[in-house]
Amino acid sequence: MTKSFGSPSMIGGLQQVLVRRPDHVFGSADPTKWHYASRINLNSALQEHDDFVKLLHESGSEVIYHDVLLPDHADAIFVHDPSLVCDQGAILLSMGKELRRGEEDAQKAIYERLGIPIHFRLYGSARGEAGDMLWLDERTLMVGLGFRTNIEAVLQLREALPAVDVLTVDLPYDTGPEACLHLMSYISLLDRDLAVAYLPPMGVAFYQLLQSRGISLVEVGAREYATMATNVLAVEPRDVIMLRGNPVTEAALKAAGCRVRTYKGDEISLKAEGGATCLTRPILRT
Prior knowledge:
By secondary structure, the chain is of the alpha/beta class. It has helices at 24-27, 31-34, 42-58, 103-114, 151-160, 204-212, 222-225, 247-255, 266-270, and strands spanning 14-19, 62-65, 83-86, 89-92, 118-121, 133-137, 140-145, 165-170, 187-191, 194-197, 216-219, 233-236, 239-243, 259-263, 281-285. It starts with 13 loop residues before the first strand and ends with a strand.
């Protein structure tokens, strides 16, 4: 039987992926309310997103558009965060950013339309966003504990994924609860034995775990960390898409054997705190 969903990986071949095109809600977002750098130019954002999606198509990915109405959810363009897709179906999370609550139900409607079962849903006081969840491999899920994801979510993920080691990483305060610091803000997996990372926020225990797994790190400097050089989407092992304007990291990734393609993301990424990974919800990886 052909597999039609399942993505317990950051690096497997990206066969099917969910995206959401910028809309008037994103274009008219109040920067203060949404913690954006400045107002979005919607026409430019639409062009940037279309060009980004072209890169996904060129990778051989089937792109599915999330078109469920969300009248007051500017961050809904960042489809990565409200859910995970495992081999058993979708896991609906519970957004730590209060303004984003409701995105989970919208994605539920998409999964039901696609015939993907809802395997589990976080409940009660659990809060979790998928930007804090990094698959080291199909049996190891790292979860960052911070302002967006709490320990109750970890306990429930262990309930939902009994065959998976759900391990925790403490996130730093950084610039505070209003900013978006996810685990994947400072690290992206590129292959089973390669990641790109900004080391200052990384705890020693997590660093040592990566070393024990034989995962080499392409280190990002502070200047390019500020422009999301660590937010890199692998469409296959060592075949990646990243935000344009990070030449030092781009060169280092190429030196590590990666194919690198870049997209312009002044509006959809730099202004709104979300990179290539954030803009995608993998549904099927092989």
